[in-house]
Amino acid sequence: STPIPDAVAYKCLAGEAVGEGIVGLQAVGEVLRTRGKTQGMYGCQSGIWDRTPEYVRKVVREAWKNSETSHIGGGADHFEAVGRFGTPRWSNSMTKIITIKNHTFYKSRG
Predict the structure, then answer these.
(1) I need a surface site. Which of 16, 48, 53, 105 has the fewest CB within 10 A?
(2) Average pLDDT per block of 10 residues along the chain, 110 residues long
């Protein structure tokens, strides 16, 4: 698959996980890299990146870079803010991998 451009990844990470700290941002970055697409990641359409202070942008960029080689999410290909949105129906067919702050990470079976 075609690599996700850094500018797109930054916007997605900020929109999906800006309040989750560098570990949470990095784990979301791993999912984005594993999936190879932004489909289903609604934070990618968020305008939050445009309003993100530079010191936070630096953390987002670092998390994206680190996600290229890290394995925090254990190969997860989905995540959800379960506390905010509830356990998603689609997670029934997946293996729960880890919870980091507000996000629970899942891996497709098979």
Answers:
(1) 53
(2) 90 96 97 94 93 96 97 96 93 97 94
